[in-house]
Amino acid sequence: MTDLATNKKAFFDYEILEKFEAGLKLTGQEVKSVKNGHISLKGAYITFHNNKAWLTNAHISKYQPAGPMPDYDPTANREILLHKKELRHLQTKTMEKGLTIVPLSVYTKLRFVKVQIGVGRGKKLHDKRETIKKRDNERELQRTLKN
């Protein structure tokens, strides 16, 4: 399992309540680009249309050896493959106030490209400050242990 991209901002902005693994429907040249690490989840989120889940606003760069592709859109919506039961569960979670679905990471599992999605509740400003304090304390502890 090779980690290709992570959404660090999601862990900072949201308290992750549940995690799910899902497939990602991509074209051939997009798969090659993703496996080379040319994907960004910054600002990406999950939407639902026609009983399907879609990865919105994720940036997958064009695969350079594929040649000219004038109509390629790097931020196009990409379908997320989930079981029907998981899809219904996630759709009901989006109806609840304060909950959102965000992509956490993209990785390979065997030959497939998978995305880990999470149900998150937005953090308040004071929660974010606590996270920063904890991170700084951990960093100081590591520095003292190293020296």
From TrEMBL:
A GO BP entry: trans-translation
Family annotation (InterPro entries): SmpB, SsrA-bd_prot, SsrA-bd_prot_CS
Protein's gene: smpB
Organism the protein comes from: Candidatus Magasanikbacteria bacterium GW2011_GWA2_37_8
Principal location listed in the UniProt entry: cytoplasm
The family this protein is said to belong to: Belongs to the SmpB family.
Function as written in the Swiss-Prot or TrEMBL entry: Required for rescue of stalled ribosomes mediated by trans-translation. Binds to transfer-messenger RNA (tmRNA), required for stable association of tmRNA with ribosomes. tmRNA and SmpB together mimic tRNA shape, replacing the anticodon stem-loop with SmpB. tmRNA is encoded by the ssrA gene; the 2 termini fold to resemble tRNA(Ala) and it encodes a 'tag peptide', a short internal open reading frame. During trans-translation Ala-aminoacylated tmRNA acts like a tRNA, entering the A-site of stalled ribosomes, displacing the stalled mRNA.
Pfam families: SmpB
Name of the protein in its database record: SsrA-binding protein
Transmembrane segments: none
